[in-house]
C-alpha cells in the first residue's frame, strides 16, 4: 500500500489509489445496487431536502427525516434490506480501515452539478475509534476539512476520481463538507456527476 499524504493529523489521502478499472467496477456495482435501493434526497431534521441523493450498502444504511438522522436495517422507501457491500470495498476497509472488524455500512452519495454538502461531523456511529474511509468516483469535488470545533480554521482540497481518504484518530470527528463539484471533470459516471462512498462501522465492534 502506498504511503498516504497526511494533510491534517488523522486525515490521510491516497491520491489515485483506485485504478480506472477498479473505479469502473465500483460505479457499475453502485448503479446496480441503486436499482434495488433507490437513492433519495433525504430531509434533514431542519426540514430541507439534501441536494445530495443518497443510498447505502451493507447491513445498515443511513437515513434521515424530520425525526432525525439514524442507521436503519431497511431502505425507508422499499422496506427491503440494503444491497451487500462489494468485496473490493471490504478488502479496502481491511487494509486501511480496520483489519479485524468489518464495515457495517457504506453510504453512497450522488452529486449532480449543483449538489453540495454542508460542513458537518460524522457522528452517528457508535464508536469513533473506527475510521471513516471515503472513496471518490467521477467528477472532482472541492472538499473542505477543519477541526473538531465548527469554529476551527478549514482547508480546501480537491478529491478526484480514484482518490481514497480516511478520517481517523484526531480527525475522525473533524468538520468536513463538499463546497461544490467540478462538472465535466470526469467521464467515469454515466451522465456525469460524482459518487462518493464512505465505509463505516456504525455499530460498536
Ligand atoms: O462526498 C464526500 O466527499 C463527503 C461525504 C460525507 O462527508 C458524508 O457522507 O458524510
Ligand atoms: Fe461526512
Automatic annotation (TrEMBL):
Protein name: Alkylated DNA repair dioxygenase
Keywords: Dioxygenase, Iron, Metal-binding, Oxidoreductase
UniProt keyword annotation of Acyltransferase present: no
SUPFAM superfamilies in alphabetical order: Clavaminate synthase-like
Chain sites annotated for binding Fe cation: 120, 122, 176
GO BP field: oxidative RNA demethylation
Binding site for 2-oxoglutarate: 109-111, 194-200
PANTHER family, per the entry: ALKYLATED DNA REPAIR PROTEIN ALKB-RELATED, NUCLEIC ACID DIOXYGENASE ALKBH1
Organism (species): Caulobacter endophyticus
Free-text remark on how the cofactor is bound: Binds 1 Fe(2+) ion per subunit.
Cofactor(s) for this UniProt protein: Fe(2+)
Amino acid at each position: 500500500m502506498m504511503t498516504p499524504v497526511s494533510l491534517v493529523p488523522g486525515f490521510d489521502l491516497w491520491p489515485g489509489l483506485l485504478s480506472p478499472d477498479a473505479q469502473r467496477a465500483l460505479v457499475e456495482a453502485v448503479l446496480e445496487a441503486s436499482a434495488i435501493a433507490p437513492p433519495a434526497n433525504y430531509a434533514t431534521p431542519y426540514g430541507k431536502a439534501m441536494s445530495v441523493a443518497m443510498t447505502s450498502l451493507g447491513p445498515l444504511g443511513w437515513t434521515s427525516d424530520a425525526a432525525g438522522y439514524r442507521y436503519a436495517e431497511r431502505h425507508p422507501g422499499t422496506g427491503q434490506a440494503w444491497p451487500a457491500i462489494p468485496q473490493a470495498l471490504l478488502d479496502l476497509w481491511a487494509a486501511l480501515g480496520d483489519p479485524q472488524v468489518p464495515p457495517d455500512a457504506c453510504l453512497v452519495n450522488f452529486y449532480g452539478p449543483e449538489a453540495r454538502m454542508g460542513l458537518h461531523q460524522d457522528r452517528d456511529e457508535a464508536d469513533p475509534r473506527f475510521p471513516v474511509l471515503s472513496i471518490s468516483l467521477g467528477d472532482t469535488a472541492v472538499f473542505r476539512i477543519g477541526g473538531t470545533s465548527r469554529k476551527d480554521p478549514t482547508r480546501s482540497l480537491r478529491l478526484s476520481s480514484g482518490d481514497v481518504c480516511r478520517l481517523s484518530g484526531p480527525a475522525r470527528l473533524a468538520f468536513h463538507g463538499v463546497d461544490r463539484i467540478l462538472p465535466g471533470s470526469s467521464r467515469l459516471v454515466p451522465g456525469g456527476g460524482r459518487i462518493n462512498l464512505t465505509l463505516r462501522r456504525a455499530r460498536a465492534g
